[in-house]
Amino acid sequence: MFVFLAAALFAASFYFAPEKAVNLYTMGGQPPVLLYHHVVETEDEIGVGEEMATVTAEKLEKDLRAILAAGYSPVLTEDVAASAKEGRALLRKAVIIQFDDGYESNLTLAQPVLAKLGFRAEVYVATALVGSRNDPHMPFMTWDQLRELRGGSVFRVYSHGDAHKSAFILSNSGFKRDLSLSFSKLSGELGGETRFFAYPLGDFSENTMRAAEECGAEMQMLLWWGVKRSMSAHSFLLRVDVGQHTDALEAVRFLEDRVAFYISRPY
Fold first, then answer.
1. pLDDT averaged over the chain?
2. Smallest Cα–Cα separation from 130: which of 101, 165, 90, 92?
3. What confidence category does residue 17 fall into, taking pLDDT thresholds of 50, 70 and 90?
4. Pairwise CA distance, residues 53 & 37, whole Å
5. Percentage of residues in the chain with pLDDT exceeding 90?
6. 108 vs 26: CA distance, rounded Å
7. Distance from CA of residue 5 to its chain's centroid?
8. Phi and psi at residue 160, in whole multiples of 5°?
9. How many CB atoms sit inside 10 A of residue 214's CB?
10. How much is the CA Rg of the chain, to the nearest whole Å?
11. Given 15, 87, 175, 190, which is the most exposed site by the fewest CB atoms within 10 A?
């Protein structure tokens, strides 16, 4: 009964309140956001414990085809923000695809799959890791590669902080320095001033959300847990991890149900 009610709540069209903040409370819902990380050619390349942060290119393509077959259309966070601020309804069945960290495989393996199927996507880069080859099996993109990625028709590039440290181990001032440095590097190297931010390791709180906005963050990407109505003054979207053994459509429906639950809950 609850699942039916949750699905019914989410199925309503998104009509946006004329509020400054953009989030599931002010919009009456949000598109599911699927989060990927590293992409490999064969499943043998996925190490023990890496199944939630790595998928094969074949698995990624299977996920995207399933999403399209289920009637979902790919959109970007910028589409959601623009629709909300202009008071327009978003597509009823929309989905956002994101990648965290900035692995080279996003350019070499993910981008061709996304382009073939007509998807646009977003990559959130930890700027201190740009160009890192500490793990030769999981190299990070260089600034030249990020410029190539951003210059194409598929990817937008945004901030995943600088040092890829949990917000919970940084002081408030340290967190703000890290995020501001990331924004500065992205602007200086890639141009553009859109400031979307995804939390490293998924660690966030209301205090960090306020601090991020003080640094100029326009939209914050949160993992699906720990959300409450008191956060409705901030602009954010919820996301869910997808790994090699995750059913992408189940992840979409799980997040739809969670969003409906959060909206229905009075706190």
1. 91
2. 101
3. very low
4. 5
5. 84
6. 38
7. 26
8. -120, 30
9. 12
10. 18
11. 87
